User: Fold Universal stress protein from Cupriavidus necator.
Amino acid sequence: MAIFSRILLCYDGTREGRRALLYGAELARERQAETHLLAVLDNAYWIRGFDALAAEAASIEEQSAREILAEGVKKLQACGVAAVGHLATGNAIDRISQVATQLNVDLIVLGHRRCGLLERWWAGQGHGLLLDKVPCSILVAIDPVETEAMSNPTETTGTQTDATDSAAHR
Assistant:
């Protein structure tokens, strides 16, 4: 069996997700891999509500997730990659690992956005668990501009405009 012949791309419509989609599309095209695209709807916070508003909000969220999935499939088609779209509901880490196992993929491609300690604490401690739950390799797409900004915290992305604006407000 060829390496990376069955790829699962995880897509959520974010900048990081689009970068992962781009990396995954290029790899899938080069490898001529069977390609699957997964969007995960984490509805845990809607399940707690019992009124009609919660049901309506959940319906809107699901429709949005379906649109994101369709957008991702179209983007892949535009890159010359045929992909099967999958929509899963639940915890992203659990669902990604379950779908990867069910589809017997040998590579998962997903995006990552760096965050600070407070944001990581608020989001929960599950980020590293995906590595322990999947039976395959993972490619994590990271924005090189963001990585450079993290290593040079004194530099800003707005450069001259930011300095001029802050001086004007003093």
Notes: The radius of gyration is 19 Å. The first strand starts at residue 6 and ends at 10. Residues 159 and 165 are 10 Å apart (CA to CA). Helices lie at 15-31, 44-47, 52-78, 92-103, 117-123, 129-133, 144-151, 160-168.
